[in-house]
Design brief:
Blueprint: E1 9-11, H1 12-22, E2 27-30, H2 37-48, E3 55-58, H3 62-76, E4 80-84, H4 86-102, E5 107-113, H5 130-133, E6 150-152, H6 159-171, E7 177-183, H7 184-188, E8 190-192, H8 201-204, H9 214-225, E9 230-234, H10 243-254, E10 257-260, E11 287-291, E12 309-314, E13 331-334, H11 337-351, H12 354-383, E14 386-387, E15 390-391, H13 393-404, E16 409-413, H14 418-424, E17 433-434, H15 444-454, E18 460-465, H16 466-471, H17 474-483, E19 489-494, H18 499-508, H19 513-517, H20 531-535, E20 540-544, H21 550-563, E21 567-572
Helix pairs in contact: 1-2, 1-6, 3-4, 3-15, 9-11, 10-11, 10-12, 12-13, 13-21
Bound molecules: thiamine diphosphate (TPP) and magnesium ion (MG).
């Protein structure tokens, strides 16, 4: 006798939580609205029933939520989910989507959609004024330029397949953020559980890039074997924690000078003899390796050598999301840089002659001398402490360097002082230095919190300009720090405004009216007590005007952070309008180019 089919109905929101579990989402960084009612209801039911689903972290501002997901992805390689409110929350997330896309960070941004039924035709139908005004013609258009993929969940029956697809696209190389919209009626729909099957990773998961063609690797090895001045320029190879040691081994073996161009991660121990600083100097290079780098130098300001033979090893050689790019190479090897550099090292080992080993060792010794010289120059710059109310950022960063320990993680959004942070705060450990890929200021507060969430034992130090600090919605960030016990140490360079804006004007109009009249429109309100913003959320704040007070203030802040609450050290550096600016010394090396312009990054974000 036939049995009646068993029907077990659940809401789409239920399958959505199951789907998030199945794709391995650990955190849902959220800023909810009316669109999420079915989801909030389902989460409450699951909690009551003791079922596990991603931990929800409520963020007062989407900027915090998005950059926390970004920071978590930088620290772990695992993309998380962000849930925001319809078009409005998407708009507030858009800048961070830009940053995530430029950083090739996997994350899943999701937003509800306004209900489309007007008269109660379906569960979830419009029941509020806002439902009539929050439906744009093209909600995804707000972030489309930055999303690798976007879609609207068309039906509850598609929930798990959609989440798997979003996750797979986001985590496949080159990685990036994706965007999914969830109509309220769809979240409220019910479906029989027999109709909603899982989509396991084994059969639908992400694709990683791999090693390179051995013939292409051999060609690069041959070039390196006869090189006299080989260089490497890299920015984000260090997202793989195996990269720094491998790059060092390769550089020592082949006598390669390693330069970091806007480092997004630490790519080689900066104490290595082969590390040659962050100002790409390439004029004398005969063979060069571009390794995981978006902007290896600024062509307008860099003397390129037309004779240099370049090989480009990158997870994204093509730069598929840059409308125009512009850096030539003779060999292009797209893939996993760690795998490819291992292949290259093997190929070199197999072919190396005693003469090559000898020449490479001599180059390493020469670089060691140059590195010592470079560091002595930096120490000299740091020796001048500055004056009351005009503390020298070099000195400040050198003191931070002494105090924080090798395993602390420095998040650098110092802008004009970004190069000072990179140069003066010595970093040697993989993962201990985090840079800024995008152009949207206000990333470092959330990024620091996301890293702290991923690495609870780490001391996370945020280095940020006053302008960048405002952009980072600090009241939201410190509220999250308090609520979820994520203490970070913020060091704020206060020059009362936007040095980058002033200097950008001077670069284009070096002798213009803006300079003559000192009208750069770059000054912000002076004498803001930034410490109070941190204190408002139970954090510790300290304003430092006197250079002599810097070391003890750092110690007090670190003690508070290690004790469990965030600390903000507000440091008065020379006001950008004044004359007390510290001269910026260019780095020198034996292959120093005649640089025609400004420093590499930190000038124009
Ligand atoms: C969201 C956003 N708005 C505006 C800018 C343009 N911008 C680039 S640098 C900068 C000033 C940064 O000021 P601050 O963080 O204090 O660093 P400083 O230039 O003083 O070193 C501004 C406004 C930007 N990059 N991002
Ligand atoms: Mg500033």
């Amino acid at each position: 006798m036939d049995k009646a089919p068993q029907v077990k109905l659940h809401s789409t929101a239920h399958y959505f939580l199951e789907g998030l579990n199945e794709i391995g989402i650990e955190y849902l960084f959220s800023n909810f609205g009316t669109d999420h009612a079915p989801l909030i209801e389902e989460m409450a039911r699951w909690k009551k029933e003791g079922r596990k689903f991603p931990k929800v972290l409520n963020c007062p501002h989407e900027n915090t939520a998005m950059h926390m997901a970004a920071g978590y992805a930088m620290a772990t390689g695992r993309g998380q989910a962000v849930m925001v409110h319809v078009d409005a929350g998407t708009a507030n997330s858009a800048m961070a989507m830009h940053n995530a896309r430029r950083g090739r960070l996997p994350l899943l941004l999701m937003a509800g959609k306004a209900p489309y039924t007007v008269r109660g035709e379906l569960p979830g139908s419009r029941d509020n004024y806002v439902h009539f005004i929050q439906e744009p013609f093209d909600q995804a258009g707000i972030v489309r330029s930055y999303a690798k993929w976007e879609w609207t969940l068309p039906s509850g029956v598609m929930t798990k397949e959609t989440l798997r697809r979003a996750h797979t696209v986001s985590h496949s190389d080159p990685r990036g953020p994706v965007y999914l919209m969830l109509p309220r009626e769809t979240l409220a729909q019910t479906w029989d559980e027999g109709a909603v099957r899982p989509f396991p990773e084994e059969r639908y998961g992400a694709v990683r890039s791999g090693a390179a063609d051995t013939a292409a690797v051999a060609q690069v090895a041959e070039r390196l074997l006869s090189a006299k001045h080989p260089v490497m320029v890299t920015s984000y190879a260090g997202r793989n924690l195996d990269a720094p040691a491998l790059i060092e081994e390769l550089a020592r073996f082949a006598g390669i000078r390693v330069l970091e161009a806007n480092p997004l991660y630490l790519n080689i121990s900066r104490a290595s003899p082969c590390f040659a600083g962050m100002m790409p100097a390439i004029t004398d290079a005969d063979v060069g390796l571009l390794v995981d780098v978006d902007v290896p130098w600024i062509p307008k300001h860099t003397r390129e050598n037309p004779q240099t033979w370049w090989a480009h090893v990158d997870v994204d050689v093509v730069k598929e999301c840059f409308p125009i790019w512009g850096f030539a190479s003779n060999a292009r090897l797209q893939g996993d840089s760690v795998l490819i550099l291992k292949q290259l090292l093997e190929a070199l080992r197999a072919r190396a002659t005693p003469a090559f080993r000898d020449a490479a060792a001599k180059r390493v010794e020469a670089m060691r001398g140059e590195g010592n010289e470079r560091r002595a120059g930096l120490a000299k710059q740091a020796a001048d402490k500055g004056k009351t109310g005009a503390i020298n950022p070099h000195y400040l960063c050198a003191e931070i360097s002494k105090a924080i320990g090798d395993d602390a993680i420095v998040v650098n959004e110092g802008i004009r002082n970004g190069p000072v942070v990179n140069n003066q705060i010595m970093r040697t450990e993989p993962g201990s230095s985090i840079g800024f890929a995008g152009g949207g200021l206000g990333s470092s507060s959330g990024t620091a919190l996301g890293i702290k969430l991923a690495k609870p034992d780490a001391t996370v130090v945020q280095m940020v300009g006053d302008g960048g600090f405002y952009f980072g919605n600090p009241s939201s960030a410190y509220a999250v720090s308090k609520q979820y016990k994520l203490p970070i140490f913020t060091v704020l360079f206060d020059n009362s405004g936007w040095s980058a804006v002033k200097e950008a004007t001077l670069r284009v109009y070096p002798e213009g009216d803006a300079k003559a009249t000192n009208e750069f429109n770059a000054l912000l309100a002076p004498d803001i007590e930034f410490t109070k913003i941190c204190e408002a959320a139970g954090g510790y704040g300290e304003r430092v005007d006197d250079p002599e007070a810097v070391p003890a203030a750092i110690q007090r802040c670190l003690k508070e952070v290690r004790g469990g609450r965030s600390a903000l050290m507000h440091v008065r550096i020379p006001v950008l309008g004044g004359n007390a600016s510290f001269p910026r010394k260019r780095e020198s090396s034996s292959v120093a180019q005649k640089s025609l312009g400004p420093r590499f990054r930190g000038d124009d974000v």
